[in-house]
Amino acid sequence: MSMEEKQNSQTFLDFNQSNFNPSTREEIVEIIKDCYRKNIPLEINGTKSKNKIGRNFQSEKTLSLSKYSGIIEYKPEELYIKVRAGTPIKDIVAELDKNNQQLAFEPIDFGFLFKGSSNAGTIGGVVSSNFAGPRRFKVGSARDHLLGFQGVNGKGEIIKSGGTVVKNVTGYDLCKLLSGSFGTLTVLTDLSVKVLPKPDSSKTLIINNPHLKKAIEYLGIALSSSTDPSGGVFYPEKFDNNFTFNDLTHKGALTAIRIEGPSNSVDERIKRLIKELSLLENEFSILESVQTNIFWNKTKNLEVFSNSKSNLLRIVVPVSETLNVIQKLKTFDANYFLDWGGSLIWLELEKINLKTLREIKEITQEHSGYCTIIKVEEDLKASADIFTIDPIKYKISEKIKKSFDPKRIFNPGKMYSGI
Amino acid sequence: MPKVDSSILSKKDKILLDIEKIIDPKNVLSHTDEIRPYETDALAAYKQAPLLVVLPETVKEVSEILKYCNENKIKVVPRGAGTGLSGGSLPLEDCILLAMGKFNKILELDYENRCVVTQPCVTNLAITQAVQDKGFYYAPDPSSQIACSIGGNVAENSGGVHSLKYGATTNNLLGIEVVLMDGTITRFGGKAMDAEGYDFLGLMTGSEGLLGVITEVTVKILRTPEVVKAALIGFPTIEDAGNCVAEIIAQGCIPAGMEIMDKALTKATNDYSKAGYPTDAEGMMIVEFDGTEHEVDAYIEKVKNIAEKNNSSSLKISKSNDERLKFWAGRKAAFPACGVLAPDYMCMDGSIPRGKLAEVLNEITRLSKKYNLPVANAFHAGDGNLHPLIMFDANDPEELKKCEEFGADILKYCVKVGGALTGEHGVGIEKRELMCEAFNDKDIQQQLTIKVALDPNSLLNPGKVYPILRKCAEEGRVHVHGGKTKFPDIPRF
Question: Do residue A224 and residue B439 have CB atoms under 8 angstroms apart?
């Protein structure tokens, strides 16, 4: 323990307060031990950038990790950064920038969606929700980038798994299990995250095309080609006001494909892609690096839904099903755009009720996919299934929850009622 | 190993009859001669005949067998191709060995969704072979890929030399069908990425057959890179080679593969395979890039400059695919090359931070002198996976003991410098007692609680991964006698 940590850990912990803001792991352990003894349910959060995602639940107290923050160790040549869970994503990004590195899975900044401006949250929250940006199909999501962690389980015991090396098969891979568990299993305290070099150059091929079917075809060819794209989206015409770029020659719907790498190779691959997609001269434009970065940041951060009062659903289906699913969803008067080369559908609905929600979830399931509610009117939130689960997985989830958090004190009910 | 349940042994005939009611009797093996091939996996130092070997053909049969065993408290050890190096499918005397060999069909080649759905006992390489005519491949490539099964890869989270760029099995897996010990059949993941809820797909991957039996696997496939080129570089010191690795990564290059061999191994493999290696170099490196022509050339040029800056003594760039394969030929012959030098050798499998290579190799040299046993080292520098090969004579019990102590010391040192006990071979029974080097009681207890949650009677593959005796026992590693591995024809690591 450093001197600073020692001093902090000696701070008097007032167990009667309703909001805990610990700054050392020792304090976190003490708080959890106390809550475990007294059966006190806790809401776990960081900077609350994503706390509207998930079910509403009753908690007596809040454990905020926002003060348990800071970079512990950054080894650019070992391709990892070790940080405290409450470290803001923007601090990590700024530090990685200095060495021209990045979090390749592109954490989503949900601030635009929920409050109209940037609020990228903390690394703990990003890992706990496991939502990945456009590069998902190429590099994986947060779960693929968490190399190791230390955390505190529901009994107040410090546990760890993984490490800082990419190849490690020692014991169960708890990094995966805790990614996307929304703080319901363990309070993550220290995380070792894989970092990767930023590409020298990136460009975006924008195809002027209003047709969904054609867009899916373009994306399919591109993602299966040796040009190795790292992003593929389709925006219908509805969103064209969001994209005014100098290099963009058209208005209307667009299909965008990102190519990254050494600069001469990016040019070569863009040319090849144009040929593979049989595009005519007047059918496409190319965004240079700066505009490419703006475009994909807007996409990953869902900026087209910035300040929207509407509801937002996140639907993932195998790309072969996308066209059918969208056609069925058209009856619901919804807006959408496609990411992940067509398999991620962000669906915005102005009005929604339990019946429509159920129908949409059924459609996605019929097409081998799933639908998560990201944003929904408050009065619906209490009764809607935010996440969907079948009885077998519910039973297994219940057992796993119990194995980490036997008294259900961490975010009880945030994912599923009773878990 | 766990205590043998004599009541199970005494009920063998009854169990046999019951099992034969569940599956076709021709798929149940009980005679000593029939079950002998199943006594061991590729950690051949350990042998144990199981009570019975059953070869189910359908997921329903797997489910019914597990349910029956669960109700009757019979231990079950699942087995794929049996090529594992850590004893993960070593049978127990009182167990039913669930051999998945009949699950050997590829079910669907789905190019639109860029994935393959397959039964678990299809080999790793067969997946690539099934899609390569359409220009695709399956990325993880453990060296035993001609023989190892994809189900086994999932159970062990197998890697390969391309893990830095393409990830291990867990990063290339989309979904599995699993049967739990109580007979429950379920699916985790699928063709839609990042399924909601707890990541059971991730939990099952690398769980070494302790949590469920895999009956179907969906993996993603990638477009075959257009061009692959490699550079063969010699360095006057291991430190120079290590610095070169660090700088390659610091400069933003992510090679498809990056291998280092020390002088002992360079010489041994060159003598064996005439690969044209710089045998005077203290460290030799193979760096490989894949992608489009311009991309690969750009990276190779960068690496060339970095190598020269780090005092490289020789540098060759592959001009053809044949030449590239020749670069690798020696590296891939590391096992048989060591077999020529000593009657026996043991292959370790630790992970270390890339930057600690020189330090760890110095320690291994020190230990080599201490134990008076020669050692040769191969290192997947891209992903930090170190494979020391310790040479010894197993006919001398004293030397075997020394070798085992030497191996354990190396793995402990890997953990000490921030690495891991095993990068890709798994814990199995081999490194079980070393788990306490990497984890404390609370960590292990948490993992065991997960096991109990899914298999309350601890019947599925018991005795593997987690320590039974709280001592860091020094047991056999990949032990090869007289050059005879369990599968001498399979390339290793």
Answer: no
